[in-house]
Design a protein that fits this description.
With 533 residues, the protein is an alpha/beta fold. The protein has 2 domains: 80 residues; 342 residues, Spore Coat Polysaccharide Biosynthesis Protein SpsA, Chain A. The protein has 21 helices and 10 strands. The strands form 2 sheets. Strands 3-2-1-4-7-6-8 form a 7-stranded mixed β-sheet. Strands 5-10-9 form a 3-stranded mixed β-sheet. β2, α9 and β3 form a beta-alpha-beta unit. It is elongated and about 140 Å long. It starts with a helix and ends with a helix.
């Protein structure tokens, strides 16, 4: 009986330590969990903060974009008001309502300041803070509508304004073209002065005439086909001098160069005086005048025959307007000048020559040109640089392809070429009778229906199928009207100032003038007396 209580007590003593153990173990586990959770929170806080900051920035950017795109946003409405108000400012000024235009401009500035503040603090505008600005702008826009500044009126006024500006621009463009043409045709006072003084020198100085007579002793050179023959037809003394001087200075053998100059009777003595007073590195220079060519008469030359026609005289010389159908540049009488058309009679001007290089008086030579005389033209008459790199330099640009004669005989896409530096094989010319071809087309263009004017269109017809293309570096064009690639200028043998902006005129392109002026001796007394500088 005593053992049962003892057994009972013993059993109680064994359980008590187990309860304590499990309790302590649970507390330790709880503490461990708490510690781990706190460390996890400490480690995760920076990442959460960073993620939250980036998220806020992204959301903020999205809100700004939404503000600009949403039709209901305050920012969008204010921007629309500003755009409309700016249009009304223009109309108010056009209507001479300057006070209202000033009020609109002031309110536009207020609205822009409000938008700028919202953008700076990077929070969208609220209705309450923008209510006053929007209301004031709305009142002004309403007032504008009451003044008939509505959209329909605005569109009509803007259309009328555009039309008026287009008409004004057209008128100014036409005036500019006329004034530019007049400036290009006008003889500068300095050139006129030079011609007068040289003529006086010639008649007053027997020494000059004797110098010319001495040079005539070398007239055998004028017919020697082993030499390099160049021809220039011009009434511009200084321009012709630059052509001769630049050729001489850049020639490897200037003593083998012969220049044949043809001018008119007015400038004949002045031209002779100039080339008697100046030496050009041993170059031979001969001067002739048109009036000495007895075969050059109206019965033989179509251009001279056309000048006798009363209608032609009225077209070119009366100044009557033809309703602006013909650009002023095509009504320039210089296109009927025989000095321009003499290029089609070169074999008759120089009957003893077999090959000649033709140069315009608005060119500068900066390379030796002797290589031109060894070029094989392969049976062609004309050697020229082609200009059809762009489509507008093809035949259809210069000729009237609505005329059956042009349409039947010439390819509209045939490549154009340039006068100004041409190699002419006079043997082939005479054999084919190229001058006769020129006469044929000139006689069919009395009414100016095949082409308007100039020497290039009849040249394209005359030398059609008879032109050999030269390397483009021989002849660089455009220095009288446009920008030219500097590399082309550097490599070019002949630089052509074609266009109205001649280098001896005030309207010449300034950056290209030095290329021409370096061949003029401005210290020459007569040039100083005539104010050349």
């Amino acid at each position: 009986m005593r053992r049962r209580p003892a057994d009972f007590r013993k059993s109680v003593r064994r359980r008590f330590p187990n309860v304590i153990w499990w309790t302590l173990l649970g507390i330790v586990v709880l503490l461990f969990i708490v510690i781990l959770s706190k460390e996890g929170q400490l480690e995760s806080r920076p990442a959460i903060a960073k993620r939250s900051y980036k998220h806020d920035r992204i959301m903020e950017g999205l809100n700004i974009a939404d503000e600009m795109l949403s039709a209901d946003s305050v920012t969008r409405q204010i921007n629309d008001q500003i755009s409309l108000a700016k249009s009304f400012v223009v109309i108010a000024k056009e209507s001479n309502n300057l006070q209202f235009a000033w009020e609109l401009s002031a309110q536009i500035r207020n609205s822009q300041i409000l938008l700028s503040g919202a953008a700076t603090r990077r929070t969208p505008l609220t209705t309450s803070e923008s209510e006053t600005v929007m209301r004031d702008m709305a009142l002004l826009l309403y007032q504008a509508q009451q003044l008939h500044y509505d959209s329909a009126t605005m569109i009509m006024r803007l259309k009328a304004k555009i039309q008026a500006l287009e008409e004004q621009m057209g008128s100014l463009s036409e005036k500019s073209s006329k004034h530019g043409q007049i400036a290009a045709e006008e003889v500068p006072k300095s050139l006129y002065c030079l011609g007068v003084r040289l003529t006086s020198k010639w008649f007053g100085n027997l020494t000059l005439q004797s110098k010319l007579n001495e040079r005539k002793q070398i007239s055998s050179k004028l017919k020697d086909n082993s030499l390099y023959h160049f021809c220039v037809f011009s009434d511009n003394i200084l321009a012709t001098s630059v052509v001769v001087n630049s050729t001489a200075l850049n020639s490897k053998n200037p003593d083998r160069v012969v220049f044949h100059l043809v001018t008119d009777e007015i400038n004949y003595e002045a031209m002779k005086a100039w080339f008697s007073m100046n030496e050009f590195q041993g170059v031979t220079v001969d001067v002739q005048k048109l009036e000495d060519f007895k075969w050059l008469n109206a019965s033989y030359v179509p251009v001279l025959k056309q000048l006798e026609d009363s209608e032609t005289q009225s077209y070119y010389f009366s100044g009557n307007d033809d309703g602006s159908r013909t650009p002023i540049k095509f009504r320039n009488p210089k296109y009927l000048s025989m000095l321009n058309h003499l290029r089609f009679y070169i074999p008759e001007v120089f009957p003893a020559l077999k090959k000649v290089v033709f140069l315009d008086d608005d060119v500068v030579v900066q390379k030796d040109l002797s290589g031109l005389f060894s070029i094989d033209l392969n049976g062609n008459v004309n050697g020229a640089v082609e200009t059809c790199m762009e489509t507008f330099h093809r035949y259809h640009k210069y000729l009237n392809y609505s005329h059956p004669l042009i349409r039947e005989h010439f390819d509209p896409d045939a490549c154009g070429w340039a006068f100004g530096m041409n190699v002419f094989d006079l043997v082939e010319w005479r054999k084919i009778n190229v001058t006769g071809i020129y006469h044929h087309w000139q006689e069919r263009n009395v009414d100016r229906t095949l082409w308007k004017l100039g020497t290039l269109p009849p040249g394209l017809l005359t030398f059609y199928g008879l032109t050999a293309p030269l390397d483009p570096s021989w002849h660089v064009l455009g220095l009288g009207y446009t920008n030219v690639n500097p590399q082309l200028i550097e490599k070019g043998a002949v630089l052509h100032f074609n266009g109205n902006s001649k280098p001896w005129l005030k309207i010449g392109i300034e950056k290209y003038k030095p290329l021409w002026e370096k061949y003029v001796d401005f210290s020459f007394p007569l040039l100083q007396q005539c104010n050349f500088h």
